[in-house]
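Onboarding guide, step 5: your first structure request.
Type a short instruction followed by the sequence, for example:

Predict the 3D structure of this protein.
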Amino acid sequence: MRITAKQVLAAQAAVVGGLALVLLVREMPGIVREIRIWRMVGLGPGSRPPR
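The system replies with structure tokens like these:
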């Protein structure tokens, strides 16, 4: 059985995509925390002006 270059490229894309997904899931709590801080400071989309 011979593996073509297209199959190697698809396998590499799957591995890189999986690693990116794992990293995103691991970092999600920190990302959410940063977004909350940005909103309190008044930066970024969805920020509200202070009352």
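Each response can be followed by summary notes, for example: The CA atoms of residues 4 and 10 lie 10 Å apart.
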